[in-house]
Design goal:
This protein is of the alpha+beta class. The chain contains 16 helices and 14 strands. It binds D-MYO-inositol-1,4,5-triphosphate.
Length: about 450
């Protein structure tokens, strides 16, 4: 059961054609469709931004990350192509080329959370120079498809959202939906591969909203609490003192309790968004953001993610502002509670950048008598998700990061001018001194003569 869909003209027009910079054999192997298919990526101007390198002091973990970025720079071949998708989702997944021996690959890869697995897969992909690897979501959620598409395990909730979104003003901001396909007796949603054609992509996943659990989950937990040992363990690993004496005794916590705690230790509760994972130029995935709460640390992470490039930051800002305007007009957004959804930031070395709304597995229609605002605090029964509140804060943080980068670049260039002036003065002084000495010597010689 496969349904292909015509991309409407307005979406085509918004796209900028990208022919990936690939090794020759890769280009030859591209089919016509892949070459002619425009990608909705934004081409940022001014590739060689002066503010490319950040001089911001980072906490030790960021410094460590910088080191790993440098290491990965060395290990990435310039002709490598990387076609992997990093939809942030709660659980790990490994999806392989349909021609690959899945069992063999599974043996080689540990079952991990999505970002960790994503990194492993990216590295594996890079080593193999062009392996078709897809990854994300809950275990077994994704499967590779033909070039330019990915398959995500069918979820009626997500499917309904994507169908509705294809008719909504938000369409340009979500991966194109191509219907349902059957593979190995499993139904998948076929959608656009957002990383197709990107060269050593940098990817950042931000979970949006002030709430990450459904009201339904909360109601269930109140009626029939299901203690989760795994969540207790994750909680203790991060904050040994976080569980109550009762929870310590049970060695378990309920899901809403864990989710609410996660929201409070990260920036979700305060800013309405949190960074889930970052990879820079297909380098190692950094995902230890669970306790990242302060705006300053978030801004530093944006600097690391963009390598302080003003053009990339500006392109992201523009895209998010347009998205914000579209959200305010969207019928879908007005009527849906968007929980656990992410914004996927992607850019590559050639200055292509874009931001996408992804992960609609917990996005459900709100009761018909409710008109959602998305920018007010949540109270049980209101179904508010704080999506717009989070987006507003995200935009403000990105804007401030851009100003910080600009200021840093200005200070750096002022310093350079000053250093140059000082250098000139020193040279002048030295020349004068030399002239004087030569004059004296000449005079002396003349005198002697
Ligand atoms: C997970 C994260 C996911 C959630 C998952 C949590 O915690 O909050 O969003 O999945 O619940 O374990 P963490 O990021 O700290 O690992 P859902 O969004 O699908 O609820 P789960 O274990 O019940 O899948």
């Amino acid at each position: 059961m496969e349904k292909s869909e015509q991309i409407p003209l307005e979406k085509e027009l918004q796209k900028v054609s990208v022919v990936p910079h690939m090794a020759e054999q890769d280009i030859k192997s591209l089919d016509r469709e892949a070459l002619s298919k425009p990608r909705s990526l934004k081409h940022s101007e001014n590739r060689e931004s002066k503010a490319r390198q950040s001089t911001v002091d980072l906490p030790p973990e960021e410094e460590q990350h910088k080191k790993s970025i440098r290491q990965s720079d060395r290990s990435v071949s310039s002709t490598s192509t990387c076609s992997s998708v990093a939809y942030s989702s709660p659980e790990s997944d490994q999806v392989f080329s349909e021609e690959e021996d899945i069992q063999t690959k599974r043996k080689t890869l540990r079952k991990t959370k999505s970002w960790k697995t994503f990194f492993t897969m990216v590295h594996w992909s890079l080593r193999r120079q062009n392996s078709w690897v897809q990854l994300a979501g809950h275990e077994g959620n994704f499967k590779a498809s033909e070039r330019g598409h990915i398959l995500k395990k069918f979820s009626p909730i997500e499917n309904a959202c994507l169908v509705a979104l294809m008719e909504d003003v938000l369409r340009p901001y979500v991966p194109t939906y191509y219907g349902l396909v059957e593979r190995d007796e499993q139904t998948y949603i076929k959608m656009e591969d957002l990383l197709m054609g990107l060269e050593a992509p940098s990817i950042m996943d931000c979970k949006i909203g002030i709430r990450t659990y459904l009201e339904e989950e909360l109601a269930k937990a109140l009626l029939k609490p299901t203690p989760r040992k795994d969540m207790y363990n994750k909680m203790v690993a991060l904050e040994p003192e976080a569980p109550t004496p009762e929870e310590h005794k049970q060695q378990a916590v309920t899901k809403p309790r864990y989710m609410q705690w996660r929201e409070s230790v990260s920036s979700t509760a305060s800013l309405g968004f949190r960074i889930e994972g970052v990879t820079v130029e297909a380098g190692p995935v950094k995902k230890n953001f669970k306790k990242m709460k302060s705006r300053d640390n978030i801004m530093d992470t944006f600097v690391v993610f963009t390598k302080g490039r003003k053009d990339i930051l500006a392109a992201y800002l523009e895209r998010l502002e347009n998205m914000q305007a579209a959200l305010q007009k969207s019928e879908f957004f007005r009527t849906h509670e968007v929980i656990g959804s992410s914004l996927l930031f992607v850019h590559d070395r050639r200055s292509f950048s874009n931001v996408w709304m992804i992960d609609f597995g917990k996005t459900t229609p709100a009761p018909s008598h409710i008109t959602l605002r998305h920018d007010v605090p949540w109270e049980p029964g209101t179904h508010e998700d704080g999506y717009l509140f989070g987006l507003k804060n995200l935009i403000a943080s990105l804007r401030d990061t851009m100003h910080m980068v600009e200021e840093t670049a200005e200070v750096a260039s002022e310093c350079t001018v000053q250093e140059e002036e000082e250098e000139k003065d020193t040279v002048k002084e030295k020349t004068l001194l030399k002239c004087k000495m030569e004059g004296n010597t000449t005079n002396g010689e003349n005198k002697e003569l």
